[in-house]
Amino acid sequence: MCRCWYRPGLTALIGGVEWIGKLAWLPPQDIVDELMNADLARTVMERIEALGQISEEPDRLTRTFCSPAMRRANDLVGSWMRAAGMDVREDAIGNLIGHYPAANPKSAREPGAKVLLLGSHLDTVRNAGKFDGALGVLVAIACVQRLFQNQIRLPFAIEVLGFADEEGVRYHSTYLGSKVLAGTFDPEDLKITDAEGVTMAQAIRSFGGHPGALASAKLERRHLLGYLEVHIEQGSVLEEKKFSVGAVSAIAGQTRTRVRFLGRAGHAATVPMNRRRDALCAAAQFVLAVENHARRSAGLVATVGEIAALPGSSNVIPGEVNLSVDVRHSDDATRAAACARLRDHAKDIGKARSVDVKWHVIHKTRSVACDRGLSEMLNQLVKRHQRESIFLPSGAGHDAAAMAALTPVAMLFVRCKGGISHHPGESVRVGDVRVAIAVMEDFLQTLARCDA
Ligand code: HGY
Ligand code: MN
Ligand code: MN
């Protein structure tokens, strides 16, 4: 296939002509809004680039819970929140929170005070893309920035949340930040140690947080109007439909498990093949069984993302293997049955190979439906900006899944190139960011009219 060198430029030019053509049909105020959105969208893209440089690894983007990189990220994003007229704080676990006051600012504890929550997460996976999480925080800040620039205050306050840990890279338990705000954080998790043996409590303390005050960081339900999260789709439905954005119907549940295969280490040269208890061969057979089971089960995805063989020398038979299993399905019962089946698989393989198997579920979240009212409203607003709209389910997890325990949630997906995510190839068009900003701004104004 010819690699037309001029294709990217041509695509941008066509996008620009389409946009100018659209402007021609808009009433004057909307033209101003479109031009302003274009400007805000460019600011968001510039900030994505700047934030994408903040990493704990020199040659790839990795930003994990309570790391020095997260400290630099919170400081940078906090400065953008302040420039958008927000008061900025960090809560006990290190969530970054920007507060934009209501028109008649009641004290946050007063019964009438209402708050709308926006945001997403600021941590990343290893070797991440720049948009996963960051886009949702920066689009929210851009919308507040516009209110601030126009000196507009709404009948409710807005809090933009930059969650401290959604991916669960450092401690394998995810949604740590949103669970604290939702009041569902399990204090037992504070004892989990990372690869260096640092407990979660120590990590929070060294970050400047307060592990003993997590329970009091929970938000008051009665004040909340809801939570809206903008996020890249991490799939390619919007791209196939040629849509910029789409409202999310539900978020699939997930189970994360750590499995330990315990055999016996030995000399690679002197232990006969029929006398081995090779932990890595048992694990390898299990990894293929996981893939096989998921391939044969509709709607199920299962992944072994991490594996470590010990002691890790080429002339030693591996005596121990630790690996992760990530299982997703939109139906909770199907996911639970799949996990039980895989556990039995692991035990059967271990028995046949005289390898002991330890199965430890680290994290489980149920499938969550987005709030119908908020999502329907979002869907109608999407139609204003792209004529057609679709609801789409999320296979990936999001902080909205944890926040749903606290308040009604809605999500807006943004098209991403090839559905690529959890990879440096993640990419989003500025035009789609412009649409996401316009939809979120309409959402704020519509809610303000309902709430006035
Ligand atoms: O794993 C997920 O689904 C999300 O990216 N944390
Ligand atoms: Mn992610
Ligand atoms: Mn994410």
- The tally of strands reads 16
Query: What is the mean pLDDT?
Result: 93
Helix/strand order, N-terminal first: HHHEEEHEHHEHEEEHEEEEHEEHEHEH
- Provide a count of the helices: 12
Please state the oligomeric state of the protein chains shown. Answer: single chain
CATH homologous superfamily designation of the largest domain:
Zn peptidases
What is the second-level CATH architecture of the largest domain? 3-Layer(aba) Sandwich
Give a description of the structure:
With 452 residues, this protein is α+β, with helices and mostly antiparallel strands. It folds into two domains: 328 residues, Zn peptidases (Aminopeptidase), CATH 3.40.630.10; 113 residues, Alpha-Beta Plaits (2-Layer Sandwich). It is built from twelve helices and 16 strands. Strands 1, 2, 3, 4, 5, 6, 14, 15 and 16 form a nine-stranded mixed beta sheet that branches. Strands 7, 9, 10, 12 and 13 form a five-stranded antiparallel beta sheet that branches. Helix 10 packs across helix 12. The longest helix has 25 residues. The mean pLDDT is 93. The site of (2S)-amino(hydroxy)ethanoic acid has 5 residues, from loops.
Topology record:
Blueprint (H helix, E strand, L loop, with lengths): L6 H18 L3 H25 L15 H16 L3 E4 L5 E5 L14 E7 L12 H16 L7 E7 L12 H7 L17 H8 L16 E9 L4 H5 L3 E7 L1 E10 L3 E2 L11 H17 L5 E3 L3 E4 L5 E2 L2 E10 L2 H21 L3 E10 L2 E2 L2 H15 L4 E4 L4 H5 L5 E6 L15 H22 L1
The chain binds (2S)-amino(hydroxy)ethanoic acid and manganese (II) ion (MN) (2 copies).
The site of (2S)-amino(hydroxy)ethanoic acid has 5 residues, from loops.
